[in-house]
Every structure is written in structure tokens, then in C-alpha cells.
Design goal:
Helices cover about 50% and strands about 15% of the residues. By secondary structure, the chain is of the alpha/beta class. It has two domains: about 1-50; about 65-330, 3-Layer(aba) Sandwich (Rossmann fold). Strands 1-2-4-3-5-6-7-8 form an eight-stranded mixed β-sheet, sandwiched between helices. It is globular. The relative contact order is 0.13.
Length: about 325
């Protein structure tokens, strides 16, 4: 081969070599970027764990932990002489006792009991499958261990509507009345619902890596409740507990079982003789009429029931606690 032909051959090969080098450089950059991102995630996770341990060691927990089958639940109590009223939180409320604090303050004269389920507040973050039956059984066990005087009032927000409906039918003689706080009403379909399968939880990953902590620090308004009924200390603790508990395993399982729990309550109504007071959030939208009609339909067999519309968002107790306490006292004849 002549020198000229060799050079010509080299010239022809060059365009093939350059793309390979560019491709390797691109892959190298991607690899370096991935390592940097991974390093930042690991550092953020470690810092988040250190901060969470420090916070939990310096901030005393509220309430008392009660052992039940599958773990321990935290219970906050105030007042021991009045009519017992048991408060149950909505789905994913990170610190139920603090979240209910405006209503607790307005319910002076009652013995208020806030039972934090698995995955909430200072309870264990994981527990047995979050079925209606398990949740009712755990609640009953806690109230029995505490010796709460019967009959007591059940009051629940949002998804707790499922569990109050189930509980009132399982333990009818122990419940004197039910109060729904924009309570969710089961709307099961006609087809069987398969059991949920465990999967990766992005919510828990965001909490573990410190992303949720960063968001609550940079934009506290995203998680702060509406209104001015909370102290600064309560707001601070609620933000911290949001970063601790967000996406807990038990709440993830509870979320996945909403359809199953709704199906299990197909055709179930409150006992005829059980008084039921239903607060419905009037959010000035088309959903108000739908929710009101659903509540009336659920309670049509109940001899003594009342549906009260309150102008507020779904978390009625954030801004309407005083009116709610007045209506509760009037309904119970206190």
C-alpha cells in the first residue's frame, strides 16, 4: 500500500473514531453526574437522619403509648371527668393530636381522647394490614386498656368515616353517638377489588432523603394549617412531624386499601338508634351538594341525625372548631 493510499485510508477511518470518543466522553460525564447526585442523596439522607434523631431526643413526645396486637399506639388525653369523645384523624395526618388542638381546646368539659393509629403521630410507623377490622379492633383494645367510660362519642375526620361506620356496628353498645367531620362515605363499585400489593414508596423516599424536610423549611405555608388557632410551637412541631412521618409504611398500606375497605362496607349503615351528627365542608364548589346528598343517603335510616354545612375547607377543625363544639354540645344535649 502506498503512503498516499494509507493516508486516504486513515482519513476515511477518522470519522468513525471521533464519534466513539465523543460517546465515551458523554457516558463518562453522565456517570460522573450520576455519582454526584448519588453522593448528594446519601449526604442529605445522613443529615436528615441525624437531625431527626436530635429533634426526637430534645422534643418530648405528647401522650402515652399503649401496647396492642402488632405494636404500640400513641394516645393523647385531656380532661377525665366529662363525657368521653374519641377523635380519629384523616388519612396521612402526621400529628393528629396537634392537628385537632383547636377543637380540643373548644371541647372543654369533655374527656377528649385522640387515638393515633399505626403510621401516625408517635405511634409505631408500621403495623398489621390497615383493614377496617384491624383498625376497629386496635381502637377497641386501646380504649379498653385505658378504661374509657362507656358509652363514648366517636368523632372522626375524612377517611375515619370508614372506621367509625365499621366500629359502630361492631361495638354498638359502647358508642353513644357519632360525629363526622367531613367524613368520607364509602362508595364501593360493583366489582371485587384485589388485595393491594406492596411496592416502592416514593413518599417515604422523599421523607428519608430529606426532601420533605427541605420543603417544609423553605415553604412552611404548604403544610401549615389554615387559620390562626395554633400556637407557634404547635406549628413548628407539626412541620417536624410531617417530615418524620410522611409516607409511613402503615399510611401507605392504608392508602392502598381504600377501595378494599370501601367494598367491605358495601350496604353497611349506622344502627337505626345511634345518633349521628355529620359536619359537611361547604367549599363553595359542586362537591358540596354531592357530599350533602351522600351524607343524607347514608343516614336515612338513622332516627336521630343532623347534617350541618360549615363554610371551610376539608379540615373543618382548623377554622370552625368553636362552631363545631357548639353544635356537638347542642346535639348531645349537654
Amino acid at each position: 500500500m502506498s503512503l498516499r493510499s494509507s493516508r486516504a485510508s486513515g482519513a476515511r477511518d477518522a470519522p468513525e473514531v471521533r464519534p466513539r470518543k465523543k460517546s465515551r466522553r458523554r457516558l463518562r460525564r453522565i456517570g460522573i453526574a450520576a455519582l454526584i447526585v448519588l453522593g448528594l442523596i446519601l449526604v442529605s439522607t445522613a443529615v436528615n437522619q441525624v437531625m431527626e434523631r436530635a429533634e426526637k431526643s430534645t422534643i418530648p413526645a405528647y401522650g402515652e403509648r399503649i401496647a396492642v396486637a402488632g405494636g404500640s399506639l400513641n394516645v393523647y388525653r385531656t380532661g377525665r371527668a366529662g363525657q368521653p369523645i374519641v377523635l380519629l384523624s384523616g388519612l396521612g395526618t402526621s400529628a393528629p393530636a396537634l392537628d385537632f388542638m383547636p377543637l380540643i381546646r373548644e371541647l372543654g368539659g369533655f374527656e377528649v381522647v385522640v387515638v393515633e393509629g399505626f403510621g401516625y403521630g408517635y405511634s409505631d410507623m408500621a403495623g398489621p394490614p390497615r383493614t377496617n377490622e384491624n383498625i376497629s379492633t386496635e381502637l377497641h383494645e386501646v380504649l379498653a386498656r385505658l378504661g374509657i367510660r362507656q358509652p363514648y362519642v366517636l368523632a372522626g375526620h375524612s377517611i375515619a368515616g370508614f372506621y367509625m361506620l365499621d366500629y359502630a356496628n361492631r361495638y354498638r353498645t359502647e358508642v353513644s353517638a357519632v360525629v363526622g367531620i367531613d367524613a368520607t362515605i364509602p362508595k364501593p363499585g360493583d366489582e371485587p377489588v384485589p388485595e393491594p400489593e406492596p411496592g416502592f414508596s416514593w413518599e417515604r423516599a422523599l421523607a428519608a432523603t430529606g426532601v420533605v424536610r427541605a420543603v417544609t423549611f423553605l415553604a412552611p405555608g404548604l403544610v401549615n394549617p389554615d387559620g390562626d388557632a395554633y400556637t407557634e410551637d404547635e406549628l413548628h412541631r407539626m412541620r417536624l412531624m410531617y417530615s418524620w412521618n410522611f409516607g409511613s409504611p402503615a399510611v401507605a398500606d392504608e392508602t392502598a386499601r381504600i377501595a378494599n375497605n370501601a367494598e367491605a362496607l358495601r350496604g353497611v349503615t349506622y344502627p337505626d338508634e345511634l345518633p349521628v351528627l355529620a359536619f359537611v365542608a361547604d367549599e363553595k364548589s359542586d362537591s358540596t351538594a354531592t357530599k350533602t346528598a351522600s351524607a343524607q343517603n347514608l343516614l336515612k335510616n338513622v332516627k336521630r341525625h343532623q347534617v350541618v354545612l360549615l363554610e371551610a375547607n376539608h379540615y373543618l377543625h382548623w377554622t370552625q372548631s368553636r362552631r363545631m363544639a357548639e353544635e356537638i354540645r347542642s346535639f348531645l344535649g349537654l
